[in-house]
Amino acid sequence: MNYPHPVIAREGWPFLAGSVVIALLLSIFAGGIIAFLAWIIALFVLQFFRDPAREIPQDFGAVLSPADGRIVAVERVNDPYVQREAIKVSVFMNVFKVHSNRSPVDGTVQQVRYFPGKFVNADLDKAFTENERNAVWLKTANGTDITSVQVAGLIARRILCYVKAGDVLTRGQRYGFIRFGSRVDVYLPLDASVKVSIGDKVSAHNHLGSVGVKRLL
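Given the sequence above, the corresponding structure tokens read:
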């Protein structure tokens, strides 16, 4: 499951190659503003699919943010995937953020559940129950349950997840990708110590992940 971090996500190679070829052809046969706009699109594709390496903090008990983005929810809810009361922390990714998804903890995948659904704005509260989503239920070495849920957005049309039940993930390990705008919800136990607030900007390599708990996991 280790991913070699080639700077550009493997999911983006076909899109980047296609956009560059089109830009080159338009530069040769059309030129002008059309070719210029094509190169702008190619640059957008390049930045969208960037996948820089992350230095993963190893602080004892840390839960990391599974994605780069902005915190849009920190609330007590029912975790519908594990059927428990939990603290949900939601990270919204716009189209300019890195869209690789990473494991928030060291743990074993207990279950992966995919749900087809709508494609409303991922920034809205109803997105976590109505949108297309993929839930990964992880259990740490001492039995703590953490659920990481990929949620599709308004223009996102593809959730990619590369793990299955029984896989062992390490904190910060890349496990999926969502194309073109989305969010990731993390469900923490009620006694978790949450280190972020709504509006905070986070990344997958922040100390304590910025979506973290400071407890004995």
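Confidence is low (pLDDT under 50) at residues 207-217. Try to locate this feature in the token string yourself.
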